[in-house]
Amino acid sequence: MLKESLYSMRSIMLPPSRESIHELFNSISPTYDRVNTLLSCGLDKLWRASMVKSLPGDSPLSILDIATGTGDQLFTFLKKRNNIWQAVGIDLAENMLELAKKKSEKYSFPVTFLCADALNLPFQNNSFDCITLSFGIRNMLSPEKALSEIHRVLKPHGFVSILEFGIPSFPPLHKLYLLYLRKILPKVGAFLSKNSRAYTYLNKTIETFPYGQSFSSLMHSQGFHEVSYKKLSGGIVYLYHGMK
Predict the structure, then answer these.
(1) Closest CA to 190 of 178, 202, 176, 179
(2) How many angstroms separate the CA atoms of 151 and 86, rounded?
(3) Cβ within 8 Å of residue 192, ≥6 positions away
(4) How far apart are alpha carbons 51 and 47 in whole angstroms?
(5) What would you report as the CA-atom Rg of the chain, rounded to the nearest whole angstrom?
(6) Which domains does the chain possess?
(7) 41 with 232: CB under 8 angstroms?
(8) 74 near 89, Cβ under 8 Å?
(9) Mean pLDDT along residues 175-189
(10) Residue 127 pLDDT more than 70?
(11) Once rounded to an integer, what is the mean pLDDT over residues 200-209?
C-alpha cells in the first residue's frame, strides 16, 4: 500500500522547472546557511561529515565539489582530512560563490572557486581523484549529463560521492516527513528567507527525484561501477558512492 500511494503521489506531481535555478539560489544566498541548519535541525552537518568519512584511504587527493554553494562541504573536507592537495568548488550561483570565497579566508589551505556549469565541466578528462556533490544533482536540467561529465573528469579508479534527499519508507516517518515537506518547510523557509518560491521548489524537487536503487541505476547507466548507497536519518538523505 505504501509503495502504491507513493507511486500515485509521484505520478501526479509534475517536476518543477530547473531553468535559471541559479538565480533563485542567488536570491536566497544571504540566509542560505542559517536556514539550512534550522530546517534540518542541524543534521546537515552530520550528513556532510558522513560524506567525508566515506572517502577512500589516506593517499593524497584532488577534490572537485560540484554545486558547492557557500562551500560547506568542501570546508568540511578540509577540516577533517589532511590528505587533500587540491580543492576546487564550482557553482552557477555567483552570490553563493562570493560567500564561499569569504569563508575560505579563514583557511590557510588554498581553495579555488569557479562559476561553472556541472553539465559542461571546464576540466580535461581524468583530472580529479574524487568528485563530490551535495544536495545539488536534483536541481540540474539533466542529471544524466551531470553524471556523464563527472565520469569524464574523474581519473581512472576515481571516486564519486553524492548526497541527496530521498523519502523514508518506514510508514510513520514517511507520513511525518511528507507533512513536514509539504506544510511546514515551505512556510518556515519562506519566513526566514523572505522567498516563498525557493522552499516550495525544494519540496517538489525532493518528491519527484529518483532515489535509492533508482538513482543507483542512473549512475550505472553513465558508466560507474561498484555503485552503492547508504540511508542516512532513516532515508531522509541518501549517500551514494561510485567508481570510474
Answers:
(1) 202
(2) 18
(3) 31, 34, 35, 38
(4) 7
(5) 17
(6) 20-167+211-243 (3.40.50.150)
(7) no
(8) yes
(9) 88
(10) yes
(11) 84
Q: How far apart, in whole angstroms, are the C-alpha atoms of residue 227 and residue 237?
A: 16
pLDDT of residue 198: 67
Instruction: Enter the C-alpha cell of residue 36.
Output: 539550512
Beta bridge partners of residue 115, listed in sequence order: 91
Q: Which three cell numbers stand for residue 161?
A: 560521492
At 38-79, the pLDDT tens digits run: 888 889 999 999 999 988 778 899 999 999 999 999 999 998
All three cell numbers of 98, joined, read 562570493
Residue 1: CA atoms inside 13 Å, Cβ hemisphere, count?
Answer: 4
How far apart CA 237 and CA 244 sit, in angstroms, is: 23
How many CA atoms are closer than 13 Å to the CA of 68, on its beta-carbon side?
Answer: 32
CB 187: neighbour CB atoms within 10 A?
12
Please name the amino acid found at residue 232: L
Three-class secondary structure of residue 226 per DSSP: strand
Residue 50 C-alpha cell reads as 558522513
